[in-house]
Amino acid sequence: MDTPFAHGTFVKVLNARTPRTEFLVGQIVQIVAYGKRSGVYAVFFDGEMFAPFRHEDFDVVRHSE
Description:
Blueprint: E1 10-13, E2 28-34, E3 41-45, E4 48-53, E5 58-62
Antiparallel strand pairs: 1-2, 1-5, 2-3, 3-4
């Protein structure tokens, strides 16, 4: 199992899981939430929060500090 990304990590979206998040593919977003039980991430982009995403949907750009 992959170690969850920390809140605040900037990632590039590689895959969308819903039509509402398809426009985020290729964009840099910030991780703002992670569900330990579900393994689902939420991200922040352009003033809004979007979900669901999984670990494999991202490529790390910059780790949180």
